[in-house]
Amino acid sequence: MESSGRRSRWLWWWCGAVISGAVIVSCGGGGNSLKAEEKLAVSRIAFGSCADQSAPQPIWNAIIKFDPQVFIWMGDNIYGDNKRPFRLFGKERTIGPWKNVPRFVPASHQEMEAKYNIIKTTPAYSRLRRNTKIIGTWDDHDYGLNDAGKEFGGKNSNQRLLLDFLDEPQDSPRRKQAGVYASYTLGPVGRQIKIILLDTRYHRDPLSSDGTILGSSQWTWLEKELKGPASAITLIGSSIQVISNLSAVTRPLFSMESWGRFPRERDRLFKLIAESKRDGVFFISGDVHYGEITRYDCAVGYPLYDITSSGLTQAVEKVVPPSLHFIVRFLAWLTPNTMRVLSRRCRHKSCTYGQPNFGAIEIDWDATPVALKFEVRDINGLPVMGVHIPLSELHAQSTNSVATVKVGEHQRHCSLEVSLPWIVKYRLAIFFFCTVAVLLLAWLGLNFAAILVFRACLRKCKLD
């Protein structure tokens, strides 16, 4: 049986005032008890991404134990598109320079709906829904196709499916607009949290274009949201990473989607935040199948953090045997980075986490000054990395943003990966190709040695 506290909190979320898009949505009922609940401040927010509906999902128990007031889906809420197997040869080749068919293909409307239903009826997730406000955006696999942007033809149909999954009201503005972006203002005056969820798919230009991510209509909306009434905290949710520019140092081996692939668009985002004079802004993101916290100090007058949680079921270490996890962690440590927050709180030296995880945000409103915790937590709910700061550090007028870090570290978070010397920037690729070359030479050497031994034995046999 639910406790009275959880029951009343649920009533507040169900009937409370929520800003969706630019329209305030509310429902009747509640009376004086509703007004009392509206005075409650939000102090715990959980978020996550990359949940394969066909995989086991024990992580929901850890999220329930964290007891968040809000849970935010950050995209890839299902893996809706269908994936062909890796094939280097044959009639349908999905990899290699002679690839002749795409590896990912869209699923039907019925298939997508069935996949959403699997997640929605998962018992542990159903328990979370009963006591927690669920909001969210999408990424490529629930949008309908891997790495897809505005060119994808099934986006309108799949938008309806996502909003049904999130229990969005039928009269919600999100059902009438082009894209699933939305904003929510939660908590009482003085302790308000504004949550802005971006749509990085519906209007996005091709990855190689350095065009737009958000599109003109969403940019207009975002400017209005950021220049609107002030809030103590502003959380901006992007399905892809905002701060990290990791693709600049992992090519040509692989590249990930991020705002760093659209440098002009990211500069525009930072400029808009700075011009809005808005304090307390930070980002959350998903997509990459590992957890990470990044930071950029030279954009808006105070540090901008990006807490990445990925994924709830999908993670890089799950695709390799446990005996090889050390290789994944070594490569993560070897990869050049300037934005990643390195801390003693990290479970692994790389300060990335390649097992299933979720993001946790805690706000201690009663502390002086107000305290923030940004954490990535494991499948048992234990922190694997975290940043604990006063909210005052996220104020442009504050000197804490400089005073709380060493000068060298402050400068480190101002140098983008693209500006690194080439021998540093491409050291992962250099290491990979050197390793391949050494292994190839070793293989050739072993074969040559085997041939010599064979000839020696043959000669000896003839003499005998």
Automatic annotation (TrEMBL):
Keywords from the named record: Membrane, Transmembrane, Transmembrane helix
SUPFAM superfamilies, sorted: Metallo-dependent phosphatases (SSF56300)
Domain PhoD-like phosphatase metallophosphatase: 48-305
Keyword Nucleus: no
Keyword Amino-acid biosynthesis assigned: no
CDD domains recorded: MPP_PhoD
Transmembrane segments: 12-31, 428-454
Pfam families according to UniProt: PhoD (PF09423)
Name of the protein: PhoD-like phosphatase metallophosphatase domain-containing protein
Organism the protein comes from: Dipteronia sinensis
